[in-house]
Task: structure prediction
Amino acid sequence: MTKDWIQGSESKYTNWQLILLVTLRVAIGWHFLYEGLAELTNPDWSSIGFLLDSKGIFSGFFISLTTNPDVLKVIDFLNIWGLIAIGLGLILGSFTRIAIVAGIVLLGLYYLSHPPFVGLKFIVPSEGSYLIVNQNLIEIFALTVLLVFPTGKQIGLDRFVFKWQKSKY
Result:
C-alpha cells in the first residue's frame, strides 16, 4: 500500500495505476454519454433498424421486439437513458459498480444482436473488419477490468457516499 497523493489516504493502487484506471473509466463513460445524447437529440432516431438487422442465434428475439410499437418505445427509452445514466455514472464515479454492470449488459446485448462472425452481412457496415472481437467486446473487457479494480471510492462521488456511510456506523 502506498500513500496516495490524489486522495490523501492509503490506497491499494499506485498513483499511475489510479490515474490510468480513472482515465479509462471516464473515457468509456464519455463514449456512453455521447452516444445517449446523440440519440436523445436526434428526433428521427429509433432502435428499429438496428434490431431488424440482427443476425446470429438471437436474431429472432431482437427482431420480435420490433413488432409492437409500444415495446419499441420502451426499448428506445431504456437504451437512450441507459446510455446517459451509465455514462454519467462512470464519468462522475457515482454508483460505479451499477454503471459498470449495466454497461456490460448493454454492450453484451449489442454484441449478441450484431456478432462479428464470418459470413454475417449487416445493412449498416461496421467501422472495420472484425472476426469475433469488435469494439463492443473490447469495451466489455475494459469494463470488467474496472469492475475488478474499482476506482469510484478513490476518485468519484462514491468516495463521499462511502465516507458518509462509514462515519454513520
User: Anything to note?
Assistant: The radius of gyration is 19 Å. Residues 15-41 form the longest helix (27 residues). Residues 14-168 form one domain. The chain has one domain: 14-168.
